[in-house]
Amino acid sequence: MHKMRSLFAVPYALWLLLFVFAPVVLILGYSFMDINGHFTLANYQAFFSSSNYLLLTLNSFWYALLITASTLLLGYPAAYFLTRLKHRDFWLLLVILPTWISLLLKAYAFIGIFGIHGGVNQFLNLFGIPAKQILFTNFSFVFVSAYIELPFMIMPIYNSLVEIDQSLVFASYDLGANKRQTFTKVIWPLSLSGVNSGIQAIFIPSLSLFMLTRLIGGNRVITLGTAIEEHFLITQNWGMGATIGVVLIIVMLLVMSLTRERKGDGSR
Amino acid sequence: MKKLRALLLGIVLIIAVLGAGIWQLQRKSGMSGAKTVNIYNWGDYLDPALIKKFEKETGYKVNYDTFDSNEAMYTKIKQGGTAYDIAVPSDYMTQKMIKDHLVKKISHAKLKGLDNIGSAYLNLPFDPHNRYSVPYFWGTLGIIYNDKYYQESDVDHWAKLWDPKFAHQIMFIDGAREYLGVGLSTFGYSLNTTEHAKLLQATAKLKQLGPNIKAIAADEIKMYMADEEGRVAVEYSGEASEMMAENSHLHYVIPNEGTNVWFDNIVIPKSVQNKKGAYAFINFMLRPDNAAQNTRYIGYSTPNKRALKMLPSSVRNDRAFYPSKAQLRKMEVYEDLGAQKLQEYNDLYLELKMKR
Amino acid sequence: MKKSKFGTIYLIVIFIVLYLPIFYLLTFSFNAGATMNHFTGFSLVHFQELFSDTRLLIILLQTFLLAFLSALIATAVGVCGTLWISYSKKKLTKNALLAANNVLLVSPDVIIGASFLILFTVAGNLLQGFGLGFVTVLLSHVAFSVPIVVLMVLPQLKKMNESLVFAAQDLGANNWQALTHVILPYLTPGIIAGYFMAFTYSLDDFAVTFFVTGGGFTTLSVEIYSRARQGVSLEVNALSTLVFIFALILVAGYYLISKDDASAKSVRKKRGVSR
């Protein structure tokens, strides 16, 4: 298997070298540069001494957490019920289909749906409930973000659920476990790997959301992604933008080690 | 494995079909062998019919690449890698590109029809004597209101935006220069102010505007205003004209204190490969009939005075989009303030955005 | 298999929510008016517009060609990577590889786009005739899709019993046979999931594509975003309708293939033949 292994390694290692290490080195380099291209530690100092940036970090964390938690809460049961359907592969594909339509267009659709004269408010009006401000609230921001990310949570969980050997489930019932026990003792632990994939695939990118914060959140919610985008494009202060990028990478490492630990506990 | 193989086969098949389709379409649109003119412009910011006309007249093939912000365009042109023959930056970006040697000088001898441009739109501070740029469209920053809720006298001054009756009603264009600029205008300061104390003063004033702001957004303000989600918006005249076309209750006002006047300009980037084609395109766009047609398509204000004459009087005499000379005198073009100052503007803006 | 009523209702609600905005968009593509604010009447005018807009049609085909191809390559690279990661015995190496894998997932698109742009311009200076265009976009899309493929395939591989591979080898299978007959079939659900995710990422991406494209090559996202200043016309909605229908056909096609596969399997089982 040795030769095979090195064969596999080639394309992936090439990818790692060119598209991961090279950009990381670049970002690291830029993070130690000021606007004029001289070496400086000022970016990090600015980041960690500015209440704005710390607040941004906290904000990003909080919303990424909210988004991930809501997609997990909504997505897990959906994935679970999907696996019980007759043509489950077909239905799973239907879950993924909406992701193929442009994000910008979907956001526009939500503007129409959530608007003060939009579909939801018109529907509420039927019951005599006065129009509510839905857009530009934390709720709408989290909702739309969760909407966008939901398929990315359902997919890995579904895959891990499908893989569960049904005989294990039957065995659990045969041994007298009820539905709940079977779920908590058999199904949930066996689907954890999918849950972890889902969390990683959503929490990490959610830290750097930027489009929706403006479109749906009206810039009430500001995340690290927004700040980076601003530094790279508007102020052209790539140093500061790169610094925030480095912080994000470190946060990612932390999240990964956290999800890994949990997995370790599960198997023990 | 069977499943994987079938999938692989299907995917390869689809790719082949798509490739053939692209080839077919490109052949149909023709002239793939001809020399190309690479235009870098905002999306949908040039009547496609004019592109066809230009291709037919000159025999060049046009490659129309698009960007969604001045800054993104700047980054790409600065980095190189692609050869654009024409780009369309806004005023302050034009200045920055000139400063950073990213654009080529335009030889006036090779231009035909520069005198079609009104004198008020030539020789502006971002490019004295138009050595590097030719104006494409122009406009102002102003206030859009919905007449169901407010009237013109409610919004004819920037300072009136602070009125409590606008509590949680104002939509604001997402930009540090614009946001701080409104604060600076209320004190009568220049939009290109660099003094730290004045900026702080404007920031302090803007902090009190916070409760009136409903959202800070960008292009989508058009939808929000047309949907009547927002009742008042601070926006560019170009966007305003799009909203007003959709909702007849909307009106555009230029506040009395004066405001920002902006220009989008045609420039020839340093990376130009088809210089002849670039000049042909500029001259083509300077022609009154073409400029008028483009204006009808885009709906922004044209700097081409001969083209303006060809437009209906309702357009020509609209003071909101073609303000009087007296109004114009009170307006300022954004100047490139340099990286340091821009950073300061943006830091203050971030602070204002976060602590609303 | 038992069906619970609650489950059915829950799924119906989820599907309604998932498809509400989509149908909103699709409905307006048939609007006689020009905007998404009011539906003024049924009309196919936006489809007519679309079909006479060769530029947009070319962009549409390019976008899908790119998505199909980049996802294919990314899946291949990703599966290789997954195998490599899982074969590394040292825990530290494994974790380091995984961390490196996820860097592109966490980096905001702007950073990825900007750093790839720098990378490609450096490459362009070294190599004659290497300019921004389809190839650079393809490479970038492959690059940012690889980690999600690894993330989808890895859990599957972890669960796979290594003794399966050893057993195959004991039975005289060479490495290639062990791979194609044991490992890959086992990984199939993960591989398909990874492919779809990569495909989706590719379709969705705006920022990275924007930075690394050039020479007339554009994708749908770039075109739509850059049209936002002028207002996205309903022509784009019409386009989305077509994409959606095309996707439905694809899904149905895929479903038919996999159903054939499944029924073939069950036939084999009934006959008592197992391979």
From TrEMBL, chain A:
Keyword Transmembrane helix listed: yes
Subcellular location: Cell membrane
TM helices/strands, residue ranges: 12-33, 61-83, 90-114, 134-158, 186-212, 238-258
GO cellular component: plasma membrane
Protein name as catalogued: Spermidine/putrescine ABC transporter permease protein
UniProt family annotation: Belongs to the binding-protein-dependent transport system permease family. CysTW subfamily.
UniProt cross-references to InterPro entries, sorted A to Z: MetI-like, MetI-like_sf
Keywords for the protein's UniProt record, in alphabetical order: Cell membrane, Membrane, Transmembrane, Transmembrane helix, Transport
Topological relation to the membrane, as annotated: Multi-pass membrane protein
Residue ranges occupied by any ABC transmembrane type-1 domain in the UniProt entry: 57-259
An example Gene Ontology biological process: transmembrane transport
The keyword Translocase appears for this protein: no
Gene encoding the protein: potB
Automatic annotation (TrEMBL), chain B:
GO molecular function: polyamine binding
Protein name: Spermidine/putrescine ABC transporter substrate-binding protein
Annotated GO CC locations: periplasmic space
Binding residues annotated for spermidine, in chain numbering: Y92
Transmembrane region(s): none
Keywords: Periplasm, Signal, Transport
Entries under PANTHER family matching the protein: SPERMIDINE/PUTRESCINE-BINDING PERIPLASMIC PROTEIN, SPERMIDINE_PUTRESCINE-BINDING PERIPLASMIC PROTEIN
Automatic annotation (TrEMBL), chain C:
InterPro entries the UniProt entry points to: Bact_Polyamine_Transport, MetI-like, MetI-like_sf
Pfam families found in the cross-reference section: BPD_transp_1 (PF00528)
Keyword Transmembrane helix in record: yes
Keywords: Cell membrane, Membrane, Transmembrane, Transmembrane helix, Transport
Source superkingdom: Bacteria
GO cellular component: plasma membrane
Membrane disposition: Multi-pass membrane protein
Family, per entry: Belongs to the binding-protein-dependent transport system permease family. CysTW subfamily.
Name of protein: Spermidine/putrescine ABC transporter permease protein
Annotated organism of origin: Ligilactobacillus salitolerans
Lineage of the organism: Bacteria, Bacillati, Bacillota, Bacilli, Lactobacillales
Gene designation: potC
